[in-house]
């Protein structure tokens, strides 16, 4: 029987190695370490498993779990093997020695070596590496050379001699690089935009660094992801900006380019849906790749090695695409803030959809080395609840489930392709573990979705297109931020339309000087128009009366000094004090006299009547104010009398005020007689 699939996991307090199908048991020879455990990793060949503790690094035989060797280096935070497991890299946090110099925190060790009795294992190379991003050396497929990036250059070393730089690739401003896998010993370097010059990606052959064999320049690239295919014959460049200047995305703008390693082809990959690029992945056959792109619901498309689209999957809320190790299957999933659905497709059977897996909210999703299982796991610190691992068969059924406390990492043990059994992953379907059956018993049957609320008048009818998603037949997503929206007349934003209402006819542009149609006016504008017409008619009537001889030839009323008509001045007299009213009346009388003398010297009798009326109105306004004041005093006195009758003790001033009631009443009666 072939060796079972194996996976390793790291929790808050332990590291475990677990044999999966068909035994589903912990590896018998492995002793679980406990304590503060920071990292664990398998070698690319699958022979070794290493983990770091507070005391040092332990290297284990992954087949049986026995300890092979250990490294006396505490406080290791990162581990990594070379492609064939010959070398092990360790990274510690940056620190300084007694002289204030940075310590060499990146160390390279030979995984297995013969040591004399009592001798301590020593690293074969040491470097200063401050950043945890891109901390490790990059090796060629045969492990002959390795490389690391420093300021303005990429340094190459012979893997057996890390003390001497073997060669240098000098590139001004280089910020990232990637060695090609496979037998092609190529290296790609990236230079971001600088001082108005475009960004560039160049491919060199190792060690011929005089001129690039392929290159591409482009703008809108603050950082990139360099993705080689497994053969090292083609390179995908996923460029991204920190800020999207069009204000369409919080996460910057993304573009994708494809370069061949020999320089025969380079192009920008054209995508037919607007929006960001969520994920891109090469197929293991190195002849095609998949891209998930566009605003939600996103589109997933398979391209060939010439960037020509060959197949598109249905639109949906998806942001991840992962090809199986054999290249037969592809899973398209929506993780993160999406629902966690996983669609599995058979690429060899006309891209037929096999199943949809409801995985919950995983933060890890990987294929098993034999392409029969999909591992999903919810890990900390992204989610500290519902942590655990689940194994799903490629046909959609759950095979294994285990809940854990603060699970931090889970990884498959790599298996070389020539060691995999040649069987159909779909058939036969393996027997689920009892934990899978128990998990199915706890899963609630999803109730029939009630759907969105619909008013009674819309029930029983089909959903309007503007309420549907794009994958349901609705309109495509459009972004308004930074995009000018033009109304039907060519200016401003269009009016919001009430769903279900008839569309309003756009307003016809009016001809300058033409009469305005009342039907196109708003209620307020129509009301103001009526007021203006009424005033115009009244003014016209007064003008006609002034020119008629039988009516005394009175001139139309003129405005006073303060710009108001006499009627409005009369109204203002009621709201002002007596002294102000008298002064205003005097000024008004004088102004009328001066105007009459200047404009109509032959009609003094005609102007006398308005002056007398204004004086009478002022006197009447003053009397009215006195009457209101006296009535207010009487009400206050009656209120004090009620309080005094109720037994309340009043002050002397309040008692004196009550005694003046008779005189106030007499004064009020006298004013009222004068008014009549």
TrEMBL record:
Source organism, top-level taxon: Eukaryota
Q: Where is the composition biased (Basic residues)?
A: 526-535
Pfam families attached to this UniProt entry? eIF2A
Q: Which GO terms describe its molecular function?
A: translation initiation factor activity
Residue span of region Disordered? 447-611
Q: Does the keyword Repeat apply?
A: yes
Keywords of this protein's UniProt record, alphabetized? Initiation factor, Protein biosynthesis, Repeat, Translation regulation, WD repeat
Which family does the entry's similarity section mention?
Answer: Belongs to the WD repeat EIF2A family.
Mind telling me which PANTHER family this protein's record contains? EUKARYOTIC TRANSLATION INITIATION FACTOR 2A
Q: What is this protein called?
A: Eukaryotic translation initiation factor 2A
Q: Which organism is it from?
A: Neurospora intermedia
